[in-house]
């Protein structure tokens, strides 16, 4: 085992020695270290091995030196022999070199000069070559600067593109080109900023001058509507002049005189070239939306004058005319969808604004001017392809408001006519005056035409004036229907409906207010009834008037009829009712003058003065009623008689009246007789028999019962159809009899001592008991 280890160690030491002999001395360290990493005491054995190897090499060296020593000695001997020759040759070479150096120094100097010139020549050629490459770059950059100074930004961008793509790459190794290349992006940003600034100036200028643009467009549409055939493009075209707006002669005003769109085109081209078109489009649309909102915001007092509306419309038209031009002059800066969305938004706002502001307007002339402006406004924008149907729908709403303002205006006119009327028949002195009246109002009466002059027409002066004003209203209403692009049938229907409103609401209201006024007396009421009768008859002529205007036959299925007949009939009925009321009020005034001495012993033998005055008043009043329709006069007369009879009955039965004598009954009877005589005198013709006298039948039977003292008959026949005192109610008779009983007790304090008076008193008490029995029986039966 030990022998094997020793053999391995010897083999390893041999390998290490061979490696040391064959390896560079700088790399011996790792090899020597392996000696110490081996078995213990291995380095000693290695040293022994190394010493043996050294001794072996020494012996080999010694053998080699012994072998070559004689040859070395011979070489040294030969070398010493040629030493002198070498020194001689060295001297000759040195001399020759000196002479050669002296001879070639001038050639060397000339050669160096030639070399320097050739180097300069080569450098100059190189410089020229490089300059040929650089000069176009510098020229293009100079051109770029000139273009920027002259604000030719689109051309400048093209020049930049050529510099970047063609010229700068050829000389990119030079510092100035690198600086130039670094400058170009900044110049592009400057161009974007400058062009955007120009665009902002353009937008601001457009905003300020939109009303001028719109005014021109609307004026030309109005002129075209009057016969001109100019097309919208004749006035809105691309301007090539510098500056945004000028003010040339109005007669030849066109777009290039008003608008310079070059900032928009310039900016669009610039952003397109820079690859940032979308940013520009978004900015432009956003700014125009903001401007649209500003344009659509009206002045708070816009509704006060037509100029306020006109300026509002001009600004809107100007805005959308510009947008329409941009739409057609550029590709995609704005789209049809964008303009339509913008218009729909604007249209909703416009309608809301017009609804609000027009509602404040009470002047029909201003509303009419507003309507004309809306029509021109709508026609103008419709010519540019915008939908305006909603504007014409709005006009129908404004038409209703226009009619309302007309109705208010004509209400004032009607009131003034009624206030100035004297409510007397129109006097005509001659043929000319007669023709003047019938020329204003369709009046035809054969009987009156036969009468000689001077004569009177039955109606008062207000009738022809009302008729004329109704026609004026129709004309005024017709004005609003013009230019609305409606058929004759629709115009006819609108005219008739508005006229119906005038008749049924305005004129009817004025008539009813007039009738109820306190200062309108019976004479005036009679004249009003006559007037309404003639106005009612004139309605058919108003129908013909409207038909002549619209050329729509009244037989058309959907033609609206005028409601004047019912209007004037209602007014007439109201006047009739007022006549009845005022008659009754007048009767009450006379009744209040009654001053009966209810305890008088005997009557005066004649009717009371207040009653005779009342009857005279009624006679004179009913004479005025001769011009009224017979039924009206008869109804008024019957109503007056019934009210008089009722008032007299209430006077007798007044609870405040506690006592009444037979003398007062007799005096009261005289007054009733006068009433009966008035009724029988036929104050108003047309009553049959004693119809009017029946108004006093209740009083007559009651008074007869007390005057005759026919209680036995009354009590015996009560409830029979043929009863003589059929109209006398037991409760009425009881109330009056008790008043007389109390009077008998007071005035006949000692009458109990006279037999006749005692018998009469007993009879009254007996009758009172029986009447109370009848009254109780009636209450139980009921």
TrEMBL record:
Signal peptide: none annotated. It comes from the Eukaryota. Keywords: Exocytosis, Transport. One of its GO terms (biological process) is Golgi to plasma membrane transport. Residues 49-218 form the Exocyst complex component EXOC6/Sec15 N-terminal domain. Residues 391-739 form the Exocyst complex subunit EXOC6/Sec15 C-terminal domain. Pfam families: EXOC6_Sec15_N (PF20651), Sec15_C (PF04091). The keyword Transport applies. GO terms for cellular component: exocyst; plasma membrane. InterPro entries: EXOC6/Sec15, EXOC6/Sec15_C, EXOC6/Sec15_C_dom1, EXOC6_Sec15_N, EXOC6PINT-1/Sec15/Tip20_C_dom2. Belongs to the SEC15 family. PANTHER family: EXOCYST COMPLEX COMPONENT 6 (PTHR12702:SF2), SEC15 (PTHR12702). Component of the exocyst complex involved in the docking of exocytic vesicles with fusion sites on the plasma membrane. This is Exocyst complex component.
